[in-house]
Structure prediction request, 327 residues.
Amino acid sequence: MDKQPKQTNKITVKINGEEKPLKENLVIHNWQQAKREVAATSEETNNESSYKQLSTLLKKKHNRKPRTLSTKNKYTRNLKSSSTRSNPPVLIMAIASAITVGVLIGLVLLKIMVKDSATSEIPPTTGQEQPVTGKPSEAGVTHPLPELDFVILQAGYFSNLDSVDKLKTELKQKGIFAASIQEEDSYRVFVAVVNDLAVGKKLREIVADVELWPKEVGIMNKEGKSLTKDEIAFLELSSELFGKLTEEMTMAYTQGEKYVFSESKLSPLLADIDQLKEIKNKQVEAMRKSLQQTIKNLKQFNQGYSQESWLQAQASLIQFLEQYDLL
Prediction:
């Protein structure tokens, strides 16, 4: 077989009618790869744009002034805003009104003080007695009296005054003075007073033909009405003096001829009572005389120790109790 000439795959290019072998290396571009390059370029461009925007935002945020936290609550802000909106004339009127009211109150108080001062400096009217220490209390005003506790030798207990008066008359005919005090709706008639129940039991036989019972009693919840200061002072002092005299009467009976009356024990009380000059109430004045007579009779008993002197001292002392109870 005839051998055909060996073909070589060559490309010839004619340039200006001359054939020249093509020696340049042809670069064949893959279109898919080109597409990826274009996409990558576009993505890179987009990333760069996004970075620039983000950078701009960060700069703005960095340059913004920091916010400070306010400790004022909503109420404070509202109050401030409302106060700024308040009307100045209204505020001025309110202040002026407050000052006016304060001045008026001050004037009223000053007037009252001046009136009281003028009243206290008014001298007493000529021709009328105006005791300095014995000014009477207001009409209708009562003063509580001290309570008294003691032991009596009771001769009778009645619910009506007729029976009381009848027994008193009978005892008086026998030479025995009796007094009475009221206890609720009843009355106790008695002939002597001591400060000890045991001594009272021994005294039951002191009066012949009269049955006696020792009883612990008291005068309580008494009030004096329309009394002067001196009269109130006397009632307070006399209650203490009555207690001491009751004690002296008890010792005088139990000690007999050994008893010694010591007036010095009573001197402070008697001196205070003597200084009370403004005693206008007749009943209070009678009470003072009864206490003075009791002391006088005790002195007489201390001289002769007779039972008659002791009973006379008792009569003055129980008379004081009856008058005290009638206040």
Summary: The radius of gyration is 62 Å.
